Amino acid sequence: MSAVENMEDNLVDVTDPSVRAQIEDFLTDYVHTIDDGRVPEWPEFFTPDGFYQITNRDNYEAGRPIGIMQCQGQGMMKDRVKAMYEANVFEPHLYCHLLGRPRLQEEAPGLYHARTNFQIIRTMQNGGQSIFATGKYIDVIALDGAAPKFKDRRVVLDSRRVDILIVYPL
Amino acid sequence: MSAVENMEDNLVDVTDPSVRAQIEDFLTDYVHTIDDGRVPEWPEFFTPDGFYQITNRDNYEAGRPIGIMQCQGQGMMKDRVKAMYEANVFEPHLYCHLLGRPRLQEEAPGLYHARTNFQIIRTMQNGGQSIFATGKYIDVIALDGAAPKFKDRRVVLDSRRVDILIVYPL
Amino acid sequence: MSAVENMEDNLVDVTDPSVRAQIEDFLTDYVHTIDDGRVPEWPEFFTPDGFYQITNRDNYEAGRPIGIMQCQGQGMMKDRVKAMYEANVFEPHLYCHLLGRPRLQEEAPGLYHARTNFQIIRTMQNGGQSIFATGKYIDVIALDGAAPKFKDRRVVLDSRRVDILIVYPL
């Protein structure tokens, strides 16, 4: 279990429908932003020092700090997006994310934990479609009056075999 | 961007939970109706002059008025359903739709815009299953006291390569 | 139509957001429990005399009492879980469930009916991923002050061709 999951014992379920609606809209906007190809907006979903990691379930459950992709802070995320547009050569493709209902818990006022199942279908330039990734998002979200932001987002993939070139954030 | 998406600047987010619940039930009933094979009920989800179009993302974003399937008004939809049962010869199959959370915005009291990701898995008579389509619904929904109805539903497919025989509405 | 579906005429739509939230959390916890491999907790989602059946759409709609897997009561479910761990030899794999919005109706105070679309993606040990099953859950749920429990859960698969070895509950 990771540090994030170990804290679950101290958490209480969220029952405030307004908090849930704000967080669900936020999680939905995130996937729409990526699915619509507006990747330069991606770092804005995080706090300035937010953490983002794509990992797999084996490494996540063993608590290994190994990520397929990892960013500490918005600056690093912006660099990554810039590099992606400047340097990467890849076949254009699209993602379609679908999310399950997030399980929401409160750590402290304005600080929430979310676990959300996801499936991503990828569509290639030639029209071919395939399951690209499934798994769960494990998030810590700050929601203190202003718009929600990720303090910590772990993308925990079910499969240990992932397309080596993860171009877009998931 | 299509006319529908260009209007988004004039829209305000829906925060009324009762409006959201009614619209989400409506969107859910629509997919259940098709997945359960009750296609003759499909035109009832639209206003009398409602517009329905299946298109792909390239054409939608370029604003091209080209549809893979297009119906203007309930009458045309009913004709289409009738033709489908009378004339089409096709291998029986089933759809299973899954929807993301809709992003909801209000254009005017009783008039809402929704954008909803979807994935459709098709099951053939022999039991084989495959990804049939992914994409987003871009909807304009009338909800004026009575049951919600689509004024405009665009099915925007991620893939430009679609099974030539779209038998059922999506 | 099965007995469960035939009763729908006597049901009224659920509009209480708190009832919906409790049931949606319950349905979400169920799939997270299986997806996370905590199968021994599975019987706890049912009432002591709860009924669980995996069937396919043809048999369900014809009202045939034939199940691919069937359990009457928590005791039988616990035996099944025990047997699964003791006896079965199978390649490790993971499920990722995604649920649609449940359509909720009330039969009597504290007794609800739910119909929920689902898709399950399976990930094998070698990382390969495929559509494992799609269909709908048809549920009768008791919610009488305490935590919700299934009185009756039918897993109605779209496909008549199912991997003969359904190891985990769905």
Summarize the biggest pleated sheet of chain A.
8 strands, mixed
Q: How far apart are the first and last residues' alpha carbons of chain A, in Å?
A: 22 Å
Spans of chain A of at least 5 consecutive residues whose pLDDT stays below 50 are 1-7
- Strand percentage of chain A: 35-45%
Output the helix-strand order of chain A: HEHEHEHEEEEE
| Whole-angstrom Rg of chain A | 16 Å
Question: How would you characterize the overall build of this protein?
Answer:
The structure is a homotrimer of 170-residue chains. By secondary structure, the first copy, chain A, is an alpha+beta fold. Chain A has 4 helices and 8 strands, in the order αβαβαβαβββββ. In chain A, strand 7 and strand 8 (149-157) form a beta hairpin. The longest helix of chain A has 19 residues, at 17-35. The model of chain A is unreliable at 1-7 (pLDDT under 50). Chain A binds chain B through residues 17, 21, 24-25, 27-29, 31-32, 35, 94, 96-99, 119, 121, 123, 126-131, and chain B through 13, 15, 17, 20, 57, 98-101, 103, 115, 117-119, 131, 134-136, 158-162.
Could you name the key traits of this structure?
eight-stranded mixed beta sheet; disordered N terminus; alpha+beta; homotrimer; 170 residues
Layout of helices and strands:
Three copies of one chain form a homotrimer.
Chain A: H1 3-6, E1 12-13, H2 17-35, E2 46-56, H3 57-61, E3 69-72, H4 74-86, E4 93-99, E5 103-108, E6 111-124, E7 129-142, E8 149-157
Parallel strand pairs in A: 2-8
Antiparallel strand pairs in A: 1-5, 2-3, 4-6, 5-6, 6-7, 7-8
